[in-house]
Structure formats: structure tokens, C-alpha cells
Amino acid sequence: MRTRPAARAGQYAALLAYLVFLAFPFVWLVSTAFKPATELAGLHPTWIPRDPTLANFRQAFDEQPLLRAALNSLLTASAAALVAVAVATPTAYVMARHRGALARAATGWVVVSQAFPFVLLIIPLFLVLKNLRLIDSLPGLVLVYVVWSLPFALWMLTGYVRAVPAELEEAAAVDGAGRLRTLVSVTAPLLAPGIAATALFAFVTAWNEFFFALVLLKTPEQQTLPVLLTRFIGAEGVADLGPLAAAAFLATLPSLLVFALIQRRITGSLLAGAVKG
Questions:
Q1: Of 87, 85, 92, 272, whose CA–CA distance to 195 is shortest?
Q2: DSSP 236
Q3: pLDDT tens digit string along 139-154?
Q4: Closest CA to 202 of 148, 164, 269
Q5: Is 147 within 8 Å of 125 (Cβ atoms)?
Q6: In sequence order, what DSSP letters do the residues of 123-158 get, joined into one string?
Q7: How confident is the model at residue 253 (pLDDT cuts 50, 70, 90)?
Q8: pLDDT at position 275, please?
Q9: Hey, what's the torsion of the CAs at 46, 52, 57, 63, to 10 degrees?
């Protein structure tokens, strides 16, 4: 009994240290974004800007087309999330409800595919997109993001489908509902938290992705926001720190906003399910 308060204090201390570790880069990014150039060049950096300014944000928008790049990222990330969820939901339902050799092989493929590095995938993907004439296009990038996020989306949704009691689907079948009607009317509403979490994962993954966008997009008008951020680094590798921090701060806001909105839906759905249960 004497060790319980100490153990709890240690858990809180570890959690606090972890939160500080996670928050440090973002806090420093925000602080840098609002510091003037003279303060950024100082030898004694501070957490809070002494003379906060918006000059870095104005300079970032003047130097680079951030709004166009943000729109490209928004379109590709949203389309990739919607397509990934639309494909993964019925597929995960089949994988979860049919425990045959094919389902086990598909599950094994989902697990193994996560170990593939980007470099192994970029060449075959480039050749496929070249044959489809989708190189240097946002639809081609959306296709790549769907392929990349689909295995993990299947893995997530399969677990959610298995958590839905099969008795509910059997009752719907007794009432005359087919497989598609059961999936749409019975199973899908119960999968709302899982679908929201999967869509969030696919959106954030596509929004923050850099490597595929760098290789596949060559036209400046097609480039996404992560690729555009590299333009704030000069030819000699010297970063324009103030505008870069300001642009990077703006680039993180959509992910945080989407996560905050969907997190409420996930939490509310889980609590509602617990109360009904």
C-alpha cells in the first residue's frame, strides 16, 4: 500500500515528461514564428518573443504561394481519406466476417506491407502512374496516398468490425436484410468511431507526406505544402528561419483542427456506446 502513491506519482511524472517532449517542438515553432529577425539572430534565445511580430507570416506569403499549395494539400488529403475509407470499409467487413484462408492471407499482406520502405515502392508506383499518364498530377498523387494508407486502414477497420456483435447482423438477416443492407444500415453506424479514426489517419498521413509528392510532382503549381516548405531553404542550405517557422506553423493547423473535430466525434460515439451497453 505504501508504494501506490509513489508509483502513481512516477506515472504522472513520466506522463508529464512525455507531454513536454511532444510539445517542445511545436512550442518552439510557434515562438520562432513570431520573433523578429533581430531576435532570431541573437545569441540568447528566449521562449517568449520580446517583440512579437507578424512580419514572418507576411514575408512567407509574399515569397511563396502558400495558399495554392495548401489547397493542393487539402484536395489530395481529403480525396485520399474519402477513397481509402470507402474502399477499406467493405473490404474490412469481408476480412473480419469470413475467417477463411483468403482472409488470413489478406491480413498477412496488410501486416507485411507496412514493413516496405518508401524507396521500394516509388519505382513501381512511378511506372504505373506513367502508364496511366498520371505523373505530375494531383489525381495520381491521390492514388498513391490511397495505396499507401489502405493497408493500415484495413487493419484498423477490421478490428472495429470484429468488435461489432455478429448477433446484430444475424437479426438483420432474419428480418430479410442482405449483406449490403446489413453493412450500410446496421454495421456502418456502429463503425462511426472507427471510420472517423481511419479517415483522420489517412488525412494526416497525406497532408504531412513529403517524399512521394517531391518525386511525382514537378510543376510548381501542383506542389503540395510540405514540398513548398523546402523553398525557404537556400541553395547553400541556409534556412530563412522566420518565414519557414511561420509557414510550418500554418501547415500544422489543419491537422490539429481536423484531429480536434474528429476526436470529439470519436469520444462521443464511444461514450454513447458504453452507455447503451
A1: 85
A2: T
A3: 999 999 998 888 888 8
A4: 148
A5: yes
A6: HHHHHHHHHTT-TTSHHHHHHHHHHHHHHHHHHHHH
A7: confident
A8: 37
A9: -80
Read off the C-alpha cell for 47: 521562449
Return the HEC string of 9-59: HHHHHHHHHHHHHHHHHHHHHHHHHCCCHHHHCCCCCCCCCCCCCCHHHHH
**Beta partners for 233?**
239
Q: What is the pTM of this model?
A: 0.79
246 by Cβ neighbours in 10 Å (0-12 / 13-18 / 19+) ranks as: buried
Cell numbers representing residue 253 in the block: 493547423
**Residue 223 cell numbers, joined:** 506542389
**Residue appearing with cell numbers 438477416:** 173
The type of residue at 271 is L
Q: At what angle do helices 66-97 and 241-276 cross, to 10 degrees?
A: 30
Q: Is 239 helix (H, G, I), strand (E, B) or coil?
A: strand
- 259, β-bridge pairs: none
Q: What does the block give as the cell for 175?
A: 428480418
- Give the pLDDT band of residue 27 (cuts 50, 70, 90): confident
Mean of all residue pLDDT scores within the chain: 81
- Tell me the mean pLDDT in the region 43-63: 85
Calculate what percentage of the chain has a pLDDT beyond 70: 87
Q: How far apart are CA 163 and CA 157, in angstroms?
A: 10
Question: Cell digits for 98?
Answer: 469470413
Residues in the chain: 277
Q: Is the dihedral of CA 103, 108, 111, 113 positive or negative?
A: negative
Q: How far apart are CA 107 and CA 71, in angstroms?
A: 35
The confidence band for 263, taking pLDDT boundaries of 50, 70 and 90, is: low
Q: What is the mean pLDDT of residues 150-173?
A: 81
Asked whether residue 3 carries a pLDDT value surpassing 60, the answer given is no
For 82, half-sphere exposure in the C-beta direction (CA atoms, 13 angstrom radius) is 7
